[in-house]
Design brief:
endopeptidase fold (from Nostoc punctiforme), 2 domains, six-stranded antiparallel β-sheet, 8 strands
Length: about 190
């Protein structure tokens, strides 16, 4: 949907500038923003302004999606935990929880944490953003637990230990020692 809006905006605004925009010179980056391949000094000022407007638009839409993920994630706070819970259950486990949150914004995730770990783009821990999936090794060496990053070095997840969906700091030794990697599954260009 956002991609259609961006393309429509690009077509609309390209007719408004004195020189047509060459769409071959604009590429989507890893994080869904547009980068201009030409050097900035080679671009007419109208095109530079337009590219900046598109970047601001994309950032705004991305932030809206992140906020929606956070809002949906919080709506499950306190839901009871059950390992291997089914979709029909009133209880959840970590991967069913993340699957449910993301399905509400149209992102389909596989059922298990190890399967979810194969989706998206790896993100360095120092570049985490709201909505990134966090993977941990808990009872095996491969991903066996997943949570959703909510900012301020915290995650929301379905906790096996406390038997409910809760907010937890990533500073906690247990999670620091078991953190494997993070994945970004929210795409602004889809």
């Amino acid at each position: 949907m956002i991609k259609k809006i961006i393309v429509t905006s690009l077509v609309f605004f390209s007719s408004a500038v004195s020189e047509p925009i060459n769409f071959n010179n604009i590429e989507p980056s890893v994080f869904g923003e547009f980068q201009q391949v030409k050097e900035p000094e080679q671009l007419p000022s109208e095109t530079k302004n337009f590219v900046e407007e598109v970047k601001v638009f994309i950032d705004t839409e991305y932030n809206k999606i992140q906020n929606k993920v956070k809002e949906l994630a919080f709506s499950f706070l306190g839901q009871k935990y059950k390992f291997g819970a089914s979709k029909d259950s009133t209880k959840t486990d970590c991967s069913l929880y993340t699957q449910n949150v993301f399905s509400k914004i149209g992102i389909k995730l596989p059922r298990s944490s190890i399967e979810q770990s194969t989706v998206g783009v790896i993100v360095p821990k120092e570049e985490l953003q709201v909505g990134d999936l966090l993977f941990f090794r808990t009872y095996r060496k491969t991903p066996s637990h997943v949570g959703i990053y909510i900012g301020d070095n915290k995650m929301i997840h379905a906790s096996f230990k406390n038997k409910e969906v809760e907010i937890e700091t990533l500073d906690k030794k247990y999670y620091r020692e078991r953190f494997l990697f993070a994945k970004r599954v929210i795409e602004t260009s889809s």
